[in-house]
């Protein structure tokens, strides 16, 4: 039964964990990938609604601020949003660029690297990066860690939330809710290999329709993502509501999480040890007889001076 | 749809015009994307707005709302003058060769027989020239000056590129580009499909716009072909089914029609409808009208309907006017001539034009019954909702009943999608509270009325007392019983001409061919005959296999007529019975009979040699370029301006005020007074749907409310600049009939147009949101819309009207 | 205040000084214990001491605020005696003698030696920085309002400064153990004249001078009760 | 269609989840708790084939309900998604279809018959029998008073135009057929549906 894919040890990376998780049993576990072909997106928001419905999310009813976008941004209750951009090229040709914005499920997840709570963020063998709210302590480090500004901290329970790539559905052999709902086939799902093959087909199609710069968005800075885009203008991701040109885990986060901590921890231990051995070698600092004698002399001197009539 | 959703993938060119499929039918639109990817098809959008469909289109051309006839008329002329049409198809399968009566004429925007005083046409001259047998004269060479082809050519010769551009406001190069792309499909192995919806129907000239599209498709030879057709995407889930079942003022199930008051004699009534062929030996299927009619009367009145009593012809109400459509009824309601109104899952206060008039009309009712799963604005029209609906309950004496009914998830039954598929679905849970099914409610009301008439008597009680009511649970007929009833069954053994038994008494009929006019069969809707046969319920079938790879899936559900997926599919083959093109093949002649990947829309054994033409429902057997007297404003579509137009006159007939608007349209005096002028209301407005919402239901759904929470109007950047409006500002949009307030969406997607030498700004007004539900409270869009309808169907002109936009 | 017999003669820290110091010390240790788990997974089990990870995350900043306040008082109280003088430089130059206990070679120092002064200034600096960076990354209150880059910088800074402070603390604590009598001093506030003379020669002289004057005054209107006797 | 864990297994999972996660809170997290995946919400659901009744594409939908229609249970639909077998929709849905659940469960669903008396400012709950009796009475009175047997030209018309009806384009063919049958038997012609709007 496909349910066998549920494997509670099938985790290749855990937040705040030094020892590696069991890695051997990855045979036959394909990495999955979600492909978002922006050139086929009509911005209908079916994915957005399907996501909320599947994950039992009901965000606040917002208001119109003069654009189709709604909700305006990701929230703890909205794990994906459609971002609409009207782009007019040099010739005055209009393009309505609509991008589905959600967790990119990086191969090297900044959130996971930054998270201090063991197991609050895990990466499964199939590539999905999942938050385990049960272990989330709400420190917000994942927010600092994410190069795509995706995680959101809930005001209700102060825990971090984001797209799970429907890990529950995927583990049960189903596609994510957003993928299934997509009316135009803009969102596709499958093994990483298949999605890259498809991405190539779609890219060639776009090139055949005059989009010379069409291409795939799979940023190397985070060692690739398990959510990839097909873009008409892959040379300018910025056109699509500021999709980062070259996202990478911030060097600050790296410095902070990388080497610093083990070294520092060691230094602390070392310091304590040094003290101890110094005591062993040099011994305590004490005053000696000569000090007491000197004190007695001083007192004697003072006394006779004071008793002199 | 003449074709169906999946068939769109077989098209080489998709024209989305008068519709916004990506917005209103996203899932069906999938097959457009498939055509693009798998069939290398192009998608072209011609629309006032760069809409969601345009977002994924290969080419977009802006157009002024309501000018599609000009755009397509020009195309017709372009195709003819440049010989870019499917010669053989046009000659063999259209009425191009038929000769038009010499009395017929067209002068400065008016066809022959116009009576300016009553604003009506005497259509007697709109005919072919007939020989003594009553057959139309023909000229296969298409050279005769009065043959339909030459008449059409002459009619549209006025539609030059320059003129079209100045009427539509579309730049010439864009028009030319679209025309060229369409012309490429004139060859036999390429097809183009028109996807349209209410962007074409909701105009005072709506029906004629669609006729123009049909003419184009006939010229290109795209009717009956895979990936061709004129495809109405349709609105509601079962709008197709309700139309098929004739729930319209003048219809009976299966497009049978009610008698007009003038038709007092049964024979006369049948004769009028059982149309003989106008070309020798054509099928002219309507000749069997009586079979369908009598079977219907047997289904409704059982044994009470007998030959001697003309099958109770008199028990059918007769039409005193052409139509008692909604505009007509609400006009009478407004005059105080209507006392009661029943809204079954319908929200007229929000859905009808000129809300103020609707409110006043409803207030003059004695009783109103609203049957709905949800709270509706209509049911609460008497309630004060502040600025959004400001009324005084104390001053409204209408007694309003609100009856809770089941939603789709809580009932069994079928709906007909726009592919004409009857699909059966099942209830998954009980309805909330005391809700009851619509059938139980209708039965409950009827049985009580029947009892009252039995006990108290009253005028003309017979049809009520004798209505055939064989249901096991009279108070709640089951969907199964009703489905079997509209499929039809034999009352006696039925034999064919050779005395072969066709169907046994008591058995379900297999198809409408088994129906008889002698009272031996009963059938509630001949068009649906075959949906529930002795083989059982065909509508539950779930075999989605597609052996020919054509997308016909004949084993899925059941499609009317006779499980046929592409209408007129005989036209996909040459007169000699071989397909026009292998990649477009649907049916073909195998030497003995018609076979193929679809159910042939043709007598199965009518050999090509017999020369019968493919359009078997038409008296000519041919596609009608010339509509004869079937349309109220003329046999050839002509462009007329919307009743609220942003320009001074009709550029085609600047000097003839009678030809400014549709001369055949019906306008009530008070409504005419409520038309605005472009001097006072300079902006051309159009109303439409958004994909996040469905009319006035989804505002009751949290999930959809989140996706699109508040009312907005779309304004082009240049107009916004002119009016000092910034994105997100609140604006007031006023028409002669009232005003609404909403948030401004300022966009590059609506551009100003150069029309007849002036700049026209268009304003987009989504129709959603109201003062109930989960979304932000808002005004109803139909506060603004005018109360005037299409010349034939009386569909209100929601798509073209005038407003004034102001910053608040 | 009451004096125990065992209490040495010379008063070094007032009651308030001592309470203040220990409040800071205790909250500092709590901060270290609650902070280390977020510093490195190795210390994660420490969160158990605070009722679980989330509680630890919630408590840590509040303890921090409290300590900062307490430290402020202490900083004011010890300000004057912590100003670096020229002689302190000399003392630092001879740090090897200090560590090797060759105290006779060291120049006499006042109430605080250069080492103590350094601890004062380093801690002052660290705590100010920790306070600021801490506020910037404080969920759920301020963090959301802070630009992401600044938040990242703050996280990094907080960790680094905390490390510095912890090292300093370790040195401070060790000195207390190493220099006999100083722990006593911070607990009971008193030291012996000899201790003072050995470790803080100049301060010893000042104190003797004070004592002399005191006796002079007390002799004029002789009251045996408040006669001060040295051993 | 998907994983079918028995209910007992599912409870075990749940229990294990709780135990391990509370341990995890103490910082001593065993592997499984830390890697625990989300509960699959369709486990054990009853699936019903249906059609979306918004637009005329007629997408196939699967209704997932809690409860097995046992007599002591009131089944409740808690999830809706596309039917992958459907030739047109192939499992996909638009934002309306994807949100069907909130229509089925909308707070605006009516639960019992109500009447608003003339001039009143409020709804009054009534029972079905009263509602239907009163409506029938209204209709009969109006028909009796305004039925037209012959028009002014002396033509037999047998119609009743002082009460009209709008039928629902989202109702089933069966409802529509019965409605039509009843309406014509009463002689009603002011009869329409959304085909026009």
UniProtKB/TrEMBL annotation, chain A:
Chain spans, region Disordered: 287-309
Annotated 4Fe-4S ferredoxin-type domain residues: 32-60, 94-126, 127-156
Co-factor binding details: Binds 4 [4Fe-4S] clusters per subunit.
Pfam family, one: Fer4_11
Bias kind Basic and acidic residues: ranges: 293-309
InterPro entries hit by this protein: 4Fe4S_Fe-S-bd, 4Fe4S_Fe_S_CS, FDH_Electron_Transfer_Unit, Formate_DH_bsu_Proteobacteria, Formate_DH_C_sf, Formate_DH_Fe-S_su, Formate_DH_TM
Essential cofactor(s): [4Fe-4S] cluster
Location (main, coarse): membrane
Protein role: The beta chain is an electron transfer unit containing 4 cysteine clusters involved in the formation of iron-sulfur centers.
Protein name: Formate dehydrogenase iron-sulfur subunit
Organism: Billgrantia bachuensis
TrEMBL record, chain C:
TM annotation in the entry: 21-39, 59-79, 118-138, 158-179
Domain Cytochrome b561 bacterial/Ni-hydrogenase: 12-189
Chief location of this protein within or outside the cell: membrane
Keywords on record: Cell membrane, Electron transport, Heme, Iron, Membrane, Metal-binding, Transmembrane, Transmembrane helix, Transport
Subcellular location(s) of the protein: Cell membrane
Topology of the protein relative to the lipid bilayer: Multi-pass membrane protein
Domain of life: Bacteria
SUPFAM superfamilies: Transmembrane di-heme cytochromes
Protein name: Formate dehydrogenase subunit gamma
Lineage: Bacteria, Pseudomonadati, Pseudomonadota, Gammaproteobacteria, Oceanospirillales
């Amino acid at each position: 039964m496909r349910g066998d894919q549920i494997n509670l040890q099938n985790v290749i990376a855990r937040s705040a964990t030094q020892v590696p998780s069991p890695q051997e049993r990855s045979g036959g576990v394909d990495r999955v990938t979600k492909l978002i072909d922006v050139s086929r997106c009509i911005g209908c928001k079916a994915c957005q609604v399907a996501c909320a419905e599947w994950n039992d999310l009901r965000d606040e009813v917002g208001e119109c601020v003069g654009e189709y976008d709604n909700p305006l941004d990701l929230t703890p209750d909205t794990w994906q949003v459609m971002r609409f951009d009207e782009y007019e090229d040099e010739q005055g040709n209009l393009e309505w660029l609509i991008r589905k914005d959600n967790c990119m499920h990086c191969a090297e997840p900044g959130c996971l690297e930054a998270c201090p709570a063991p197991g609050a963020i895990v990466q499964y063998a199939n590539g999905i990066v999942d938050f385990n709210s049960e272990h989330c302590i709400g420190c917000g480090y994942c927010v600092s860690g994410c190069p795509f500004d995706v995680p959101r901290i809930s005001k209700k329970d102060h825990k971090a939330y984001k797209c799970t790539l429907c890990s529950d559905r995927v583990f049960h052999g189903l596609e994510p809710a957003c993928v299934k709902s997509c009316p135009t086939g803009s969102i596709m799902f499958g093994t990483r290999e298949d999605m890259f093959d498809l991405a190539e087909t779609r890219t060639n199609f776009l090139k055949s329709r005059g989009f010379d710069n069409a291409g795939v968005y799979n940023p190397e800075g985070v060692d690739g993502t398990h959510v990839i885009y097909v873009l008409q203008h892959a040379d300018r991701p910025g056109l699509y509501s500021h999709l980062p040109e070259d996202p990478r885990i911030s060097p600050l986060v790296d410095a902070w999480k990388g080497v610093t901590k083990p070294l520092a921890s060691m230094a602390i231990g070392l310091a304590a040890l040094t003290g101890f051995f110094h005591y062993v070698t040099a011994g305590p600092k004490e005053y000696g007889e000569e000090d007491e004698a000197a004190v007695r002399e001083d007192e004697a001197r003072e006394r006779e001076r004071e008793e002199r009539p | 749809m003449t074709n169906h959703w999946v068939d769109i993938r077989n098209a080489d060119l998709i024209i989305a015009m008068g519709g916004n499929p990506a917005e209103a039918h996203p899932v069906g639109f999938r097959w457009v994307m498939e055509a693009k990817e798998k069939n290398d098809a192009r998608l072209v959008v011609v629309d006032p707005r760069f809409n969601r469909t345009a977002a994924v289109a290969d080419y977009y051309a802006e157009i002024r709302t309501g000018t599609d006839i000009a755009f397509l008329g020009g195309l017709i002329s372009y195709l003819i003058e440049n010989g870019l049409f499917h010669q053989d198809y046009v000659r063999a399968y259209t009425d191009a060769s038929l000769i038009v009566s010499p009395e017929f004429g067209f002068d400065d925007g008016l066809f022959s027989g116009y009576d300016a005083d009553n604003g009506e046409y005497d259509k007697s001259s709109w005919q072919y020239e007939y020989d003594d047998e009553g057959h139309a004269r023909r000229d296969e060479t298409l050279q005769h000056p009065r043959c339909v082809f030459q008449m059409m050519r002459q009619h549209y010769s006025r539609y030059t590129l320059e003129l079209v551009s100045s009427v539509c406001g579309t730049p010439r190069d864009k028009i030319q580009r679209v025309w060229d792309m369409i012309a490429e499909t004139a060859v036999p192995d390429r097809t183009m499909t028109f996807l349209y919806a209410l962007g074409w129907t909701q105009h005072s000239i709506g029906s004629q716009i669609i006729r123009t599209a049909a003419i184009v498709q006939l010229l290109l030879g795209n009717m009956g072909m895979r990936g061709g057709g004129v495809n109405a995407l349709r609105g509601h889930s079962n709008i197709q089914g309700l139309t098929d079942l004739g729930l319209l003022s003048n219809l009976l199930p299966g497009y049978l029609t009610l008698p007009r008051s003038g038709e007092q004699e049964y024979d006369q009534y049948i004769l009028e409808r059982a149309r003989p062929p106008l070309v020798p030996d054509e099928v002219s299927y309507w000749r069997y009208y009586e079979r369908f009619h009598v079977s219907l009367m047997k289904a409704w009145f059982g044994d009470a309907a007998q030959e001697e009593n003309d099958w109770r012809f008199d028990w059918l109400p007769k039409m005193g006017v052409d139509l008692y459509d909604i505009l007509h009824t609400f006009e009478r309601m407004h005059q105080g001539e209507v006392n009661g109104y029943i809204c079954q899952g319908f929200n007229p206060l929000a859905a009808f034009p000129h809300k103020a008039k609707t409110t006043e009309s409803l207030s003059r009712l004695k009783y109103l019954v609203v049957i709905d799963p949800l709270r509706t604005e209509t049911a609460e029209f008497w309630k004060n909702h502040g600025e959004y609906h400001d009324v005084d309950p104390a001053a409204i004496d209408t007694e309003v009943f609100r009856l809770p009914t089941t939603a789709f998830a809580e009932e069994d039954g079928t709906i007909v999608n726009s592919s004409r598929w009857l699909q059966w679905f099942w209830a998954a849970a009980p309805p909330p509270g005391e809700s009851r099914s619509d059938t139980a409610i209708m039965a409950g009301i009827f049985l009580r009325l029947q009892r009252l008439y039995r006990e108290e008597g009253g005028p003309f009680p017979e049809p009520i007392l004798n209505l055939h009511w064989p249901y096991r649970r009279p108070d709640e007929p089951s969907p199964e019983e009703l489905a079997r009833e509209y499929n039809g069954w034999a009352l006696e053994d039925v034999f064919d001409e050779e005395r072969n038994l066709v169907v046994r008494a008591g058995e379900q009929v297999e198809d409408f061919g088994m129906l008889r006019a002698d009272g031996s069969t009963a059938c509630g809707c001949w068009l649906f005959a075959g949906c529930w046969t002795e083989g059982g319920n065909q509508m539950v079938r779930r075999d989605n296999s597609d052996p020919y790879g054509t997308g016909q899936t004949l084993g899925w559900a059941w499609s009317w007529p006779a499980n046929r997926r592409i209408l007129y599919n005989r036209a996909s083959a040459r007169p000699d019975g071989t397909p026009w093109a292998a990649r477009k093949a649907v049916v073909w002649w195998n030497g003995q009979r018609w076979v193929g990947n679809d159910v042939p829309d043709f007598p199965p054994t009518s050999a090509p040699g017999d020369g019968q033409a493919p359009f078997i429902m038409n008296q000519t057997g041919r596609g009608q370029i010339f509509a004869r007297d079937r349309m109220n404003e003329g046999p050839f579509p002509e462009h007329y301006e919307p009743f609220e137009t942003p320009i001074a006159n009709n550029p085609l007939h600047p000097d003839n005020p009678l030809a400014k608007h549709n001369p055949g349209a019906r306008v009530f005096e008070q409504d005419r007074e409520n038309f605005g002028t472009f001097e006072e209301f300079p902006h051309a407005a159009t109303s439409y749907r958004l994909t996040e919402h469905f009319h006035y239901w989804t505002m009751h759904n949290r999930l959809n409310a989140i996706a699109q929470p508040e009312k907005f109007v779309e304004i082009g950047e240049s107009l916004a600049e002119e009016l000092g409006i910034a994105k997100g500002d609140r604006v007031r949009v006023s028409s002669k009939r009232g005003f609404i307030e909403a948030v401004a969406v300022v966009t590059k997607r609506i551009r100003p147009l150069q029309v007849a030498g002036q700049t026209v700004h268009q304003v987009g007004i989504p129709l959603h949101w109201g003062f109930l539900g989960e979304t932000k409270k808002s005004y109803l869009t139909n506060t603004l819309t005018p109360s005037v309808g299409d010349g034939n169907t009386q569909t209100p002109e929601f798509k073209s009207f005038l407003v004034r936009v102001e910053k608040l | 205040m009451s004096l125990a017999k065992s209490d040495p003669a010379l008063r070094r820290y007032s009651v308030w000084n001592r309470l203040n110091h220990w409040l800071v010390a205790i909250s500092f240790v709590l901060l270290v214990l609650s902070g280390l788990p977020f510093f490195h997974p190795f210390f994660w089990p420490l969160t158990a001491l605070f009722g679980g990870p989330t509680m630890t995350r919630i408590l840590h900043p509040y303890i921090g605020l409290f300590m900062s306040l307490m430290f402020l008082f202490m900083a004011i109280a010890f300000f004057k005696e912590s100003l670096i003088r020229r002689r302190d430089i000399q003392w630092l130059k001879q740090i090897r003698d200090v560590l090797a206990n060759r105290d006779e070679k060291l120049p006499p120092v006042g109430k605080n030696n250069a080492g103590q002064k350094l601890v004062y200034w380093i801690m002052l600096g660290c705590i100010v920085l920790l306070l600021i960076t801490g506020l910037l990354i404080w969920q759920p209150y301020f963090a959301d309002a802070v630009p992401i880059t600044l938040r990242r910088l703050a996280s990094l800074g907080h960790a680094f400064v905390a490390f510095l402070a912890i090292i300093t603390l370790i040195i401070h604590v060790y000195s207390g153990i190493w220099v006999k009598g100083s722990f006593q001093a911070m607990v009971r506030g008193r030291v012996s004249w000899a201790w003072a003379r050995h470790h803080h020669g100049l301060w010893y002289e000042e104190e003797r001078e004070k004592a002399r004057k005191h006796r002079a005054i007390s002799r004029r209107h002789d009251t045996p009760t408040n006669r001060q006797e040295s051993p | 269609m998907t994983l079918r864990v028995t209910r007992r297994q599912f409870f075990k999972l749940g229990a294990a989840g709780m135990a391990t996660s509370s341990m995890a809170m103490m910082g001593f997290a065993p592997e499984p708790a830390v890697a625990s995946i989300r509960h699959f919400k369709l486990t054990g659901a009853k699936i019903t084939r249906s059609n979306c009744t918004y637009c005329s594409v007629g997408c196939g939908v699967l209704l997932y309900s809690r409860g097995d229609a046992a007599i002591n249970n009131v089944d409740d639909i808690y999830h809706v998604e596309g039917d992958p077998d459907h030739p047109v929709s192939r499992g996909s849905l638009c934002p309306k279809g994807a949100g069907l659940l909130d229509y089925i469960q909308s707070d605006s669903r009516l639960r019992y018959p109500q009447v608003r008396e003339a001039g009143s400012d409020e709804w009054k709950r009534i029972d079905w029998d009263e509602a239907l009796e009163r409506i029938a009475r209204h209709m009969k009175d109006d028909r009796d008073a305004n039925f037209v047997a012959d028009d002014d030209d002396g033509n037999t018309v047998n119609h009743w135009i002082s009460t009209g009806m709008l039928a629902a384009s989202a109702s089933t063919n069966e409802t529509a057929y019965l409605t039509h049958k009843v309406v014509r038997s009463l002689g009603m012609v002011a009869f329409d549906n959304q085909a026009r709007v």
